[in-house]
Design goal:
Coprogen_oxidase_HemN, Coproporphyrinogen-III oxidase, about 40% helix, 15 helices, Coproporphyrinogen-III_oxidase, EC 1.3.98.3, 4Fe-4S, single chain, 9-stranded mixed β-sheet, alpha/beta, Arc Repressor Mutant, subunit A
Length: about 450
């Protein structure tokens, strides 16, 4: 396995979209074309499946130096109401595009730190949206909570509004690692908030663990996993730390790169961590995610309904996802759009009555074809080709996969690619073979984190 790590540990996308953001063609994009794609997608899908909403709540009281999200660090909670008013105004701009009342299937609050906001202000935001939509049957509402500031009132308020899934960022319980990433939170706080959520009635509790952090060792990682098992979350995200300090605004400079585990050490953290999780009853779903059998993420995998978008893996597959808030990304299936990345500019543009997108990509027929294959690989670990869904470089792609076949990472059949259990850790590498935009225009500088 070590020789495979040396061979395949290269920079590569996580494929929450195709094309990936660095390969968006902004020359063909405009706010008007974006709105046209939203209208088309809504008219095709709202009645049958509904829509998804992602709300980016960017404020945090302290900077976690491992975080690559767009955020604003402040202790001034006076920012809450003006920001939420802007989010509701942005939503009303989308409502003007819809021909009927939206059916809301999926809603996720991300950040930043959603629980930075007071329970009452979150209620005001959500009720402002709910009064304009029809709530779909079997909806999935979820939020990300910081264990240190998620209160019983937060949990009860969101539960009363229909939320049943809560995700808590754990990362690692080792004090040395926590100090390096500026994320000090004892196990007792995670235990407290997890137990309160269960007591209230949440049926989906997720914990996020990260491997590859500074000073992280297998001994510490094993301790973190075993402590996590004491709480038995329904779902786990077991993420590879993406070290991208060159990206503007990320702030990943709180430690020396020499403090990070080597590629070989990092892969061991994943392999041994995965083995331990499976021994403890968790099943790997897609890439980086594990769940218990009863969780709907695993059930969607079995039913071949697993989906992946900018929110990560989801059991709800909606064609239209509207992203609200600064830096939020929206997906109409036919196009992507990202909002401006500062709070001030976001609020200014919304006040002017404009949807605050700053860049995006209109997918052509080839993009849509490749997107489907990469989604199949990321979600089902296989994809099938026929005369209607091939492309000119397909023969070259199969040729590149032969090396992976020799390494037992994939199985190549006449018109099908299957990722093996051994190859699951290299899913991103397999998907890269079909990334036509990257293959045709390979980056001259590093723009992605390492695949391993």
């Amino acid at each position: 396995m070590n020789s495979l790590i040396d061979k395949y540990n290269i920079p590569g996308p996580r494929y929450t979209s195709y094309p990936t953001v660095p390969y968006w063609d902004e020359s063909t994009f405009s706010p008007e074309k974006w709105k046209e794609s939203v209208i088309r997608s809504f008219n095709e899908s709202n009645l049958e499946e509904g829509i998804s909403i992602y709300i980016h709540l960017p404020f945090c009281e302290a900077l976690c130096t491992f975080c690559a999200c767009h955020k604003r660090i402040t202790k001034q909670h006076s920012v809450e109401i003006p920001y939420l008013e802007s989010v509701l105004k942005e939503w009303r701009l989308y409502l003007e595009l819809f021909s009927e009342k939206p059916k809301l299937k999926e809603l996720h609050l991300g950040g930043g730190t959603p629980t930075f906001f007071s329970p009452q202000n979150l209620r005001t935001l959500l009720e402002g949206i709910f009064e304009t939509v029809e709530i779909a049957e079997h909806q999935e509402f979820s939020f990300e909570g910081h264990p240190n500031n998620t209160t019983r009132e937060h949990l009860q308020t969101l539960y009363d509004l229909g939320f049943r899934r809560a995700s808590f960022g754990v990362q690692d319980y080792d004090p040395k690692v926590q100090k390096a990433i500026n994320r000090i939170q004892p196990f007792e706080k995670v235990k407290e908030v997890t137990e309160i959520a269960r007591e209230i009635g949440y049926t989906g509790i997720s914990h996020d663990l990260v491997f590859g952090l500074p000073h992280q060792t297998w001994k510490a990682m094993e301790h973190t996993i075993r402590k996590t098992m004491e709480l038995k979350p329904d779902r786990l995200a077991f993420y590879s730390y993406a070290h991208v300090p060159w990206v503007k605004g990320v702030g990943q400079r709180g430690f020396d790169e020499n403090d990070l585990p080597s590629g070989e050490e990092k892969r061991r953290l994943y392999e041994d961590g995965k083995r331990l999780l499976e021994n403890l009853g968790y099943i790997e779903v897609g890439m980086d995610h594990f769940s218990l059998e009863h969780d709907d993420l695993y059930q969607s995998l079995i039913q071949k309904k697993l989906h992946r978008n900018f929110m990560g893996y989801t059991s709800s597959n909606t064609q239209l996802m509207v992203g609200l808030g600064m830096s939020a990304i929206s997906d109409s299936w036919y196009a992507f759009a990202q909002n401006v990345k500062t709070v001030e500019e976001y609020q200014k543009i919304v006040e002017e009555g404009k949807i605050p997108v700053v860049k995006g990509h209109i997918l052509n027929d080839e993009d849509l074809l490749v997107r489907r294959h990469i989604l199949n690989l990321m979600c089902q670990l296989e994809t099938t080709f026929d005369g209607n869904n091939s492309f000119p470089e397909l023969e070259n792609a199969f040729e590149m996969l032969k090396e992976m076949e020799r390494d037992e990472l994939v199985e190549i059949h006449e018109n099908q690619i299957k990722i093996t259990e051994k190859g699951r850790a290299f899913t991103r590498n397999v998907a890269m073979v079909f990334d036509l935009r990257m293959m045709r225009n390979k980056p001259e500088t590093r723009i992605f984190s390492m695949t391993i």
